[in-house]
Amino acid sequence: MKNTQVVFTNKARCRDCYRCVRVCPVKAIQMRDNQAFVVEEKCIMCGTCVRQCPQQAKVFRNDLEEAKIIVKENPVVAASIAPSFAAVFSNWQVNSFASALRKLGFSYVAETAVGAYYISQKSGEIVEANPDKNHFSTACPVFVKYVEIYQPQAIENLVPVVSPMIAHSKIIKEKLGGKAKVIFIGPCIAKKGEIQRPEYKGIVDCALTFAELKQWFEQEKIDLNNCEQSSFDDVVPGKARYFPLAGGEIKTREKSSDMLEPKIVSISGFDDINEALKNWTSDGQGIFIEPLFCSNGCINGPATDCAENLFERRKRIISYAVNKNEKADSSVTLELSAGFNPQIIKEIEVTEEQIRAQLEKTGKLNPQDQLNCGACGYPSCREKAIAVIRGMAEEQMCIPYMRRLAEQRTDRIIETSPNGIVILDDKLNVMSMNPAFKKFFFCTDAQYGKRISSLMDPEPFEILLNSDMKFNEQTVTHEKYNIICHQIMYCLREENQVVGIFVNITNSQLTKEKLDQLRVQTISQARELYDNQLEMAQKIAQFLGESTAKGERLVANLMQLAEDESQRKQKRRE
C-alpha cells in the first residue's frame, strides 16, 4: 500500500537542532526522544522544513519509481509541466525540454499553464458575479490546505475552482481518452498531497518534482544538450505562462486589471497570508486576493532544484512568456468547480491550571522569567508549555531551562565533592567555598570576603595570577591543620577568578611513610637473619667436616683389622 505521508524525517540525520520546529509555520513537528517527526494530519506540505533543515533530515516522498512504472505499463502517458519549468531550465534548455520528456517515454507533453488559463477565467467570472465579497484564489494547494485546517472561517471566501494542475489533467484526459495517464511535474511538494484528495482521485496519476525529474534524466543519461528542439503538444492561451510569478493569475485574466488597484492584492509568504486572512475574511469589500504560500511565488518552490537566484528565475519566466499570446481553444468545456471543507484536528484540551503547572516546572511561572526567546521553536514560553502538555514538545527544548539545570547540577557536584574547592577573586579574596574546604581548613562562612592568606600561604595563587601559567599543581603539607593536600589551581581569566581544588592525601601519605618504615625494618631484619643463617651454616659445615675426618679414620682402622683377621685365618688352614 502506498504511503500517503508526503513529508517525513530521516531519523539517521536528525540532530536535535529544533530548526524545523522554528520554521514550520503551523508547528506540525512533534519532538519525541530528541528527534523531530512530521505529524501528517497537521502538515500542510509547504516544504519549509525540507528547505531549511541543515542536515537534510526532512525529506519528501520520492515517487519516481511509481512514475516509471506508469510510463512502462501504459501506452498513453501525458506529462503536465508546471509553467515554472522555464525558471528552472535555461532558455536553450527550454527549447529541448519536450524532446527530453519524450525520450523518457511520454507520448504527450504539454504545459500546465493551459489549465491555469481556464481556471483564471473561471475565477474572474465568479468574482465579477459577487462584487461585494472578498475572494481568495485557490491555485496554491498549500494555501488551501492551510485554510481548511487552521483558518476554516475563511473557507467561504475561497474561490470554488480547481487548481491549474487538476484543470489541465481534465483537459488532457478529455482529449486523449479516459485511459490516458497524466504525470504532473513541478516545483511543489504539496501537489503530491493534492492528488490524494478523494474528489481528485484518478484525475492526476502521479506528481513529481523538478528534483525528481532531474534524477530521472540522470538515471536515463538524457542530456538536454543533446536533445533536439521541439514544441509542446498544446498551445498556452493568453498570458498564462506568467502564472508562477506573484500576480501571475491576475495578469492571466483576459479582463486583466491593474495590480495597483485597491481591490486587487497579490501576496506571497506565510506572514502576508496570515495578515490577509486576518483582515479580509469578515466584511465584504469586493477584494480579490491572489495568495502564494512560497515567497515570490512558484519560482521559489521547495523542490525547484535550481541554483539561480530568484531575480534570474523571474527574468527567465518573463523572457519565456513575453510575446506569446496564443488564442484559447473554444472547444474546451469542462467542469472546474471545487468544494472545500474544514479539516478539524482534535487537540487535547489544555486548562490554565495545567499551563501554570508546566510553567512552574520549568521555572517560568513568573512572567519575568518567561523570556519568550523562541530558541525552542515556539514564539512564547506559554505556547511551548501547551505544546509539551499536548505531547508535541519536550521540556529539554528550553535552552535557558536546561542551562539552569546544568548550573544546579554543577552546584550540587561542588557541594557534595569530597575535595575542597575554593573560588577567589583577583585580589585573592574568598568568594565561594564548598563544605569539604571548610572542613579541611576549619573555617566558616565568615571567611567570605577575606584573603586566602588568613588560611594558608597565598604564594601558589599569586604565582598563577602573575604569570601565563594555565594551572599550578603541587603537594603541600598544611601543618597548622594537620593535613596534606594535592593542590590544583587554575585561573578563569575572563571572570578574573582563581579556582583551587584541594585533594586530601593525608592518609595515603601517612600510609606511605609507614610502609617506608616497615620496608627499612624488614630489610634490617632480613639482613640479620641472613647473617645468622650464614653463621649457622658455617658451623654446621665445620662440624660436618670434623665428623667426616673421624669417620674416615674409623673406617680405615676397621678395614685394616678385617684384613689382619683374614690373613690369620689363612695361615691356620695352611
Describe what is shown at a glance.
It contains 19 helices and 16 strands. With 574 residues, it is α/β, with parallel strands linked by helices.
**How much of the sequence is in beta strands?**
5-15%
Stretches with pLDDT under 50, minimum 5 residues: none
**Strand arrangement, largest sheet?**
13-12-16-15-14
Return the average pLDDT rounded to an integer: 87
Give the helix/strand class: alpha/beta
Q: How helical, in percent, are the residues? A: 40-55%
Task: Characterise the protein shown here.
- The protein has 574 residues and is of the alpha/beta class.
- Helix content is 41%, strand content 14%.
- The protein is built from 19 helices and 16 strands.
- It has helices at residues 19-23, 48-52, 64-73, 85-88, 91-104, 113-129, 141-150, 164-176, 190-194, 210-219, 248-252, 270-279, 310-321, 352-361, 381-389, 399-416, 435-440, 459-465, 506-573, and strands spanning 7-9, 29-32, 35-38, 58-60, 77-81, 108-111, 135-136, 181-186, 206-209, 264-268, 288-292, 420-425, 430-433, 471-478, 483-492, 497-504.
- A five-stranded antiparallel β-sheet has the order 13-12-16-15-14, with helices on both faces. It has a four-stranded parallel β-sheet with strand order 6-5-8-9, sandwiched between helices.
- Helix 9 links the parallel strand 8 (181-186) and strand 9 (206-209).
- Helix 6 (113-129) packs across helix 8 and helix 14 packs across helix 15.
